[in-house]
Amino acid sequence: MLGFIKSLQKKPEKRSAIKRKGDFMEIYQPWPVDELTKQAERCSQCGVPFCQTGCPLSNNIPDWLRLAAEGRTQEAYMLSAATNSMPEICGRICPQDKLCEGSCVIEKDFGSVTIGAVEKSLTDEAFNQGWVEPITIGKKRAGSVGIIGAGPAGLAAAERLRRYGYEVHIYDRYDRAGGMLVYGIPEFKLEKDIVARRVERLVASGVTFHLNFEVGVQATMKDLRDKHSAVLIATGTYKARKLSEKGADKNGIVAAMDYLTAANKIGLGDKVAAFADGSLNAKGKNIVVIGGGDTAMDCVRTAIRQDASSVQCLYRRDHANMPGSAMEVQNAMEEGVKFIWLSAPIEFEGDKHITTTVAQKMELGKPRVAKPDENGRQSPSPITNSEFNLATDMVITALGFEAEDLPKNFSAPELKTSPWGTVEIAKNSSATSMDGVFAAGDISRGPSLVVWAIKDGRDAARDIHAFLSKVDDDPIDELGADYFAPIKHGLIDA
Ligand code: FAD
Ligand code: SF4
Ligand code: SF4
């Protein structure tokens, strides 16, 4: 229990910035099993584990760290998989500094237990060793569930619903399943075969995928509701917030999601006309990315890998107030991205095509002048006569996302939405205003994180099961059949 005093915190090693700039592969090196054991030993097995409170899935972190520390790797994996549908994905891309690790009690003086890296390594090892079993399908139940959206929320819900024994159909307008895991998040954070093997596991369990199927175009909500006993909306948020400054309609100003989707498609071996003609390709260009969140970090780091001449990130607050993961900002700096903090664009110049970004310096704070925003961050205000110019061939805007107009798109005016367009759900349930229609992930929560989408998807499956079976309290289903897998396999005493 005092392992954290004997062993220093160690994070997986990163490939050198020079090497990783030359490809799109993940930047962290895998850990051998003895390293994950050693790092798991650093957990002091707190009676009240704050790490678990910091994890949206309430993972049983100290329990699986103890098993890992004892060298019981398979059991540790099984316990971690009992509460998380994609532990290896969360281990890679959760902003742990803001979640589990940020809540670890030894964080302050000794450096937190590297929970995310242990979780990732356990599941990678489980895949390597063939411990990841096919989904155990429960007794066949009447009724089928239609899920709109094959992102993490939809996939997590599908897994649980199959376990309960329902027929599951997933509809997605993209040609591959995975949502943002495939077309938003770049490969250097999450290689695509990691996502593909999760999808394959669902296919093998009998989940039917209807790809290139856009609800609202190929079917209405009523069509799906007539076909299925229940419907889950897990469509994410894709409407990009736009710039309003003068010249924002010039050629060469592109939205982050268009840019990242093209880059991910190229990585997957697809042909993308807008990449070939240069309009979504940063090669040889002076790039300005506007925004300071994780999407902006993904854009700047993609542009670096596409061999841009220069990559600058314009953000209106300072380094300390950046909303994204601190680790990703650090990675971007190491890779050569230049940050221009406390600056915002005021105009985009050029004939038809952007040639110059005119920006202005900002200052923070002055509480009497500018109140903190809704997240408590200091609000920026412009400094007069502080304009400066940046030579620009391409601007990538990463200003956040909003929900599309689903009641209109799905011909379902009775679907209640918030003023921000997100689908309203009941308190303590995923049920929407339409009978038998549920919602999960970013479309109900607003743009968030993969781990929250997984939690929402799992909760929605539980609510759909309660709706279909009219059972409100089923302890085994509540925990998920897999929770008992380590006991079933005789690996842990009941
Ligand atoms: P999505 O992943 O968006 O999936 C929704 C799916 O619904 C898509 O496949 C879409 O094609 C489909 N769909 C939409 N409309 C329709 C329709 N009408 N008919 C059929 N199908 C439809 N989170 C992290 O935790 N860590 C990160 O590092 C991270 N990086 C990110 C980087 C970027 C660039 C972006 C944009 C987001 C990032 N996020 C990150 C956030 C995370 O990706 C989302 O919170 C998460 O993917 C939401 O999951 P979801 O299932 O709700 O929606
Ligand atoms: Fe931490 Fe995310 Fe894993 Fe939870 S799911 S333990 S927050 S890495
Ligand atoms: Fe272990 Fe840290 Fe969690 Fe305590 S808070 S149980 S030390 S991981």
Shape: globular
Structural domain count: 3
Number of strands: 16
Mean pLDDT: 92
Structural class call reads alpha/beta
- Order of strands in the sheet with the most strands? 3-2-1-4-16
Amino-to-carboxy terminus distance: 24 Å
CATH level 3 topology of the largest domain: FAD/NAD(P)-binding domain
Q: Helix amount, in percent?
A: 25-40%
Task: Provide the CATH top-level class of the largest domain.
Answer: Alpha Beta
Given as residue ranges, the uncertain stretches (5+ residues, pLDDT < 50) are 472-481
Structural summary, described in words:
There is one protein chain. The chain is an alpha/beta fold and 494 residues long. It contains 22 helices and 16 strands. The chain has 3 domains: 3-132, Alpha-helical ferredoxin (Fumarate Reductase Iron-sulfur Protein, Chain B, domain 2), CATH 1.10.1060.10; 144-237 and 403-480, FAD/NAD(P)-binding domain (3-Layer(bba) Sandwich); 240-397, FAD/NAD(P)-binding domain. It has helices at 3-6, 17-21, 33-40, 50-54, 61-69, 73-83, 87-93, 107-110, 115-129, 152-164, 180-183, 192-204, 221-227, 256-267, 273-276, 294-305, 326-334, 406-409, 442-445, 450-469, 475-479, 485-488; strands spanning 144-148, 167-171, 208-210, 230-233, 239-240, 253-255, 286-290, 310-314, 338-340, 343-349, 356-364, 380-382, 388-391, 394-397, 401-402, 437-439. The strands form 4 sheets. A 5-stranded parallel sheet has the order 3-2-1-4-16, with helices on both faces. Helix 17 links the parallel strand 8 and strand 9 (338-340). Helix 3 (33-40) packs antiparallel against helix 9 (115-129) and helix 14 crosses helix 16 (294-305). The longest helix has 20 residues, at 450-469. Bound molecules: flavin-adenine dinucleotide and iron/sulfur cluster (SF4) (2 copies). Residues 55, 57, 59, 61, 84, 90-91, 94, 96, 99-100, 115-116, 119, 451 line the site of one iron/sulfur cluster (SF4).
